[in-house]
Structure prediction request, 410 residues.
Amino acid sequence: MCLFSFLVVIIFSFAFGTDLQVYNGMVPGILWVAFIFSGLLGLNRSFGTERDKGTLSGLLLCPVAPWEIFLAKMIGTLIFTTIMEIFTFLVFIILYNQNVLPFLVPLSLVIFLGTLGFSIVGTIFSAMSSATKARDVILSILVFPISVPVIIASVKATGLILEGRSIQTVYAWLKILVAFDMVFLLLAYLTFSHIMEE
Amino acid sequence: MMLLALYAIFFYAPVEKTMGLVQKIFYIHVPAAFIAFLAFFITFAASILYLVKKDNQWDLIALCSAEIGIIFCTIVLVTGPIWAKPVWNVWWTWDPRLTTTLILWFIYVAYLMLRGVVGENKKANFSAVFGIIGFVNVPLTFFAIRLWRTIHPVMITSRGINISGPMKDTLALTFSAFCLLFIFLLLTRMRLEKMKRATETVIAMFEERHHF
Prediction:
């Protein structure tokens, strides 16, 4: 996962070469493409092996609600994705020569909210796609259209912060991220038991 | 009714002054967009009802409505650029409405693909959950894109179409024609799907007999 996202960051710097020094607006997009693509790789494995080896049936037999299984899975994904993001971010700072130290707190807030939204949606769909024949393809087809608001909001917020704008300008984007997270957490709560039904 | 609507579009409605003949596509574009949204809303409502009631009838409605919705959504996405090229001078602009419609199209194609790969016992549940999530996502996408666009300079998005009497009549006529077409398609598709499911049950029963 980490290695993959390093490669995404590096491929982009090959693809655009020195243009990036001139046009800085592309940089947040690159960061989030790396996050989302590598996050998807991790999500593929979130439910896959468990379904194959029968662990999932065992989990369902445990005296916990399906919603709690979802929450645990989602937090697991969130932690792994965050670790990947920290490493990717370090590589990103070095390769793209970004000065992030003064913006570390708002930036980590945006990245956290964005990753949370992505993990929620991703975990729901990972549970679905693991039961299908074409796992990898179907997961990306399901996740990408739904996570459009997260991607737009995260990329714009990251861009504004990196430009050194004040937190007020980012506020509207943060609202969208929080709304997305809440809505999909609620939907997961309402529907996850139906996904786990055999 | 469709013939009448076509007649109205080409002979009754006046030619628009600045946009010319190409404006006539508007009479197909707008009702199609309305029907697409209506169809997806029906999918959403039927999905909720399926999860609550667990009655296959609702799953059937959701599937058929989504399929027809995609057809109308495709019509919208094809007629839109044909009109936009001469009028806006671009095929495509990242306007909230355009982008949301495009994302909508992707979501419901994904819905059908999901149905294609999931096993029979989980199909209805999964697609119902996706039908709900997909529809709830639409307003969020719309707001995100609107905000995105207000920060960037917007190209031409104002649609100052003040329609005159005969134009309004034509639009009303095509609207009703499209609604009737939608109802007809939905009922036909549902009958077809019902027959398909019945045949599948019969075949399954037959094969079971053969094995023993």
Notes: Residues 27-154+163-211 of chain B form one domain. Chain B has one domain: 27-154+163-211. Chain B touches chain A at residues 51, 103, 106-107, 110, 113-114, 117-119, 121-122, 125-126, 128-130, 132-134, 136-137, 140-141, 143-145, 147-148, 151 (CB under 8 Å). The CA atoms of residues 92 and 151 of chain B lie 19 Å apart.
